[in-house]
Amino acid sequence: MSLKNCQIIELPKIADPRGSTTFVENQKHIPFDIKRVYYTYDVPGGAERGGHAHKELKQLIIAMSGSFDITLDDGFQKKKFHLNRSYFGLYVCSMIWREIDNFSSGSVCMVLASEFYSEADYYREYEDFLRVVRGENS
Ligand code: TYD
C-alpha cells in the first residue's frame, strides 16, 4: 500500500441556516464498511498520538472539532495533512505509519474504522513496520 492510496475525502455537506449536516455511508463515501467508531479528545497541548501502523485496518480520520496534523508514511515517502473541517476526512489505507500532533485546544479526532479493535493488527515499532514494507529480512 502506498501514500497514493491515501487521500482527503470531501464528505457531503447539507448547509442550512439552522446548522450543517454531514453523513458517511459504507462503500459510497468511503471504500469500506464501518465496524467501529472511536474518538480522541481532551488532548493536552503538545501531545502526540498515533505512532503506529495497521496490517489490515482502513480508516477515515475526521476533525470533528478543532484541528490537528497527521503525517502519513508508507516507508518510502511521508506526507503531512492538516485537518480542520468536519466535512473532510483523511482516508488511511492499511500498512501506513501515522503520527498525529498539533492538536488545537478542545479538538476531537474521530475515526471510522473497517475492523474491530485488535492489538494484533498493530505495528507499534517503526523498525518492524519498515522491515515489512521494504521487504527486508529481520
Ligand atoms: P491507540 O490506537 O494506540 O491510540 P492512538 O493511535 O489514538 O494514539 O489506542 C490507545 C489505547 O486505547 C491503546 O491502549 C489501545 C486502546 N484502544 C482500545 O482498547 N480500543 C480501540 O478501539 C482503540 C482505538 C484503542
Task: Provide the descriptors you would attach to this structure in a database record.
mainly beta; 12 strands; binds thymidine-5'-diphosphate; 5-stranded antiparallel beta sheet; 41% strand; 138 residues
Describe this structure in words.
With 138 residues, this protein is mainly beta. The chain has one helix spanning 126-133, and strands at 7-10, 13-14, 21-22, 36-40, 49-54, 59-65, 68-73, 78-83, 88-92, 97-101, 108-113, 122-123. The strands form 3 sheets. It has a 5-stranded antiparallel β-sheet with strand order 1-9-6-11-4, with no helix packed on it. Strands 8-7-10-5-12 form a 5-stranded antiparallel β-sheet. The longest helix is centred in the last third of the chain and has 8 residues, at 126-133. The chain starts with 6 loop residues before the first strand and ends in a 5-residue tail after the last helix. The mean pLDDT is 97. Residues 36, 38, 40, 49-50, 52, 117 line the site of thymidine-5'-diphosphate.
Could you estimate the helical fraction of the residues in percent? Answer: under 10%
Shape: globular
Derived structural class: mainly beta
**First CA to last CA: what distance?**
20 Å
**Number of helical stretches of at least 4 residues:** 1
> Largest sheet, order of strands side by side?
1-9-6-11-4
Rg, alpha carbons: 15 Å
Give, in order, the helices and strands. EEEEEEEEEEEEH
In terms of per-residue confidence, which ranges show pLDDT below 50 for 5 or more consecutive residues? none
